[in-house]
Amino acid sequence: MIKEIIVVEGRDDVTAVKRALDAELITTGGFGFPKGVMERIKSAQERRGVIIFTDPDFAGEKIRKKIAAEVPGCKHAFLPREEAKKDGDIGIENATPKSIIAALNKVRTESIEKRSEFKQVDLIRNGLIGNEDASTRRDELGKILGIGYGNAKQFLNRLNNYGVTREEFLQALKSIGNNL
Questions:
Q1: What are the tens digits of pLDDT across the range 140-150?
Q2: Which parts of the sequence belong to the Toprim domain (predicted)?
Q3: Where in the chain does DSSP place strands (E)?
Q4: Residues 90, 158, 74, 72: what is their CA dihedral angle, to the nearest 10 degrees?
């Protein structure tokens, strides 16, 4: 049982999460946010905490940013893109209960004060930017660290803002090695 309230995009996402575990959920209804939804999310954050669990696509990322900007201190769960795909559609609703539980077990809390533990040079040195398999390496690393996929700028922000330690980063790098 998860004590926080999970924020997802739509009813099909609620169904998928409920198949995986017993949890209270709020739906955003997509990017439009019907009247009162943001207030419910703010109230949920104050009462029990919130986990933002949006689709691993452009719209999901926009929704995640919108909520995080208005509701500080949220936790974030990321589902790997390939675990959210079905017939060309990407979404939480396509994930297996096992994938959903795995994503929620790697929840990260966004830090309120800005950190700069990681710099662009860390990405360059470790093949996460500026070479042909950088995108694949960021994707694999994001799965291991539970911070999801991001372009180089997003990935660097997530490393710094979701409390990833240098030790976790190096351990994850070691596990993907140079064989990608």
A1: 999 999 999 99
A2: 3-86
A3: 5-8, 25-27, 50-52, 75-76, 85-86, 89-90, 108-109
A4: -130
